[in-house]
Design goal:
Blueprint lengths: L12 E5 L3 H7 L4 H6 L2 H14 L3 E8 L7 H24 L3 E5 L7 H14 L6 E8 L1 H18 L9 H5 L12 E4 L18 E4 L9 H12 L9 H6 L1
Parallel strand pairs: 1-2, 1-5, 2-4, 3-4, 5-6
The protein binds 3-methylbut-3-enyl trihydrogen diphosphate (IPE) (2 copies) and magnesium ion.
């Protein structure tokens, strides 16, 4: 499968909605947390697969601003899984030259999670390879609201800049590492929606949906999504003929 990938057309930014852990566990008669625990191998596989292919940015949706509405036992379980996993995976990230960058409302995560994230950021900050953005307590609307807040503060001090507000200007207030356009967005588990993920950055993303549940997702599934992406014609508003002429 990997040989079918054109190395000259690797998507620069891949975003993944890792969905289906609960159903994966249910199929096995187990509790939902069992699914979340078995999701870690998929995270490792996809992270390594993307790094090997030379993807520049990988953004993984791990916990949404809406996921707080789940039963407390699941939220608590997810948080402790997060805390232990980040710490455990730091050496592997360092070894693969991957830089870890959380995105989302991190200040409202448990203190222990914040500490481990800080450690992960520090230990990987000089890495020059792929940027792995982990979306935690993340919501696209939260991110845009937050950007607007910062932007308004700036405009209060510099009212003349109002006329210069454009996409590039706004980009600066959106989390810097997620600002590169998402080229490929993958969602597992057969759901066909964006669920408040990277609303601004995915304006022109190619969407790839697969029935595979996240804990079963491996490099082969990633390759399949990239091949699907490479077979699309990304017209970005132009006509097909214009693209051929170029
Ligand atoms: C995705 O799997 C993981 C998180 C949202 C944290 P789910 O837990 O949503 O699994 P399903 O969709 O219920 O199967
Ligand atoms: C989206 O999955 C969030 C994450 C993968 C972290 P959900 O399972 O929470 O999304 P909905 O509720 O089905 O839209
Ligand atoms: Mg789900």
């Amino acid at each position: 499968m990997k040989e079918k990938i054109d190395p000259a057309k690797i998507p620069s930014h891949i975003a993944v909605i890792m969905d289906g852990n609960g159903r994966w566990a249910k199929k096995r008669g187990a509790a939902r947390l069992f699914g979340h625990r078995n999701a870690i191998q998929a995270v490792r596989d996809v992270t390594e697969g993307c790094a090997e292919l030379g993807v520049k940015n990988l953004t993984l949706y791990a916990f949404s601003t809406e996921n707080w509405n789940r039963p407390k036992i699941e939220v608590d379980g997810l948080m402790s899984l997060l805390i232990s996993t980040i710490k455990k995976e730091i050496p592997t990230l360092a070894k693969n030259n991957i830089r870890l960058q959380p995105i989302g409302d991190i200040e409202h995560l448990p203190v222990e999670a914040q500490k481990n994230l800080d450690l992960g950021i520090r230990e990987t900050e000089s890495n020059t390879g792929m940027i792995l953005s982990l979306a935690l307590n993340y919501g696209g609307r939260w991110e845009i609201s937050n950007a607007v807040k910062k932007l308004v503060e700036r405009i209060k001090e510099n009212p003349n800049e109002v006329d210069t507000i454009n996409v590039d200007y706004i980009n600066k207030y959106i989390d810097e590492h997620t600002a590169p356009e998402v080229e490929l967005m993958i969602r597992t588990s057969g759901e066909h929606r964006i669920s408040n993920f990277l609303l601004w950055q995915a304006a022109y993303a190619e969407l790839h949906f697969t029935e595979t549940l996240w804990p079963d997702f491996r490099k082969e599934h990633l390759y399949n999504a990239i091949i699907d992406f490479q077979n699309r014609e990304r017209r970005l508003g132009k006509t097909s003929e214009q693209l051929v002429k170029k």
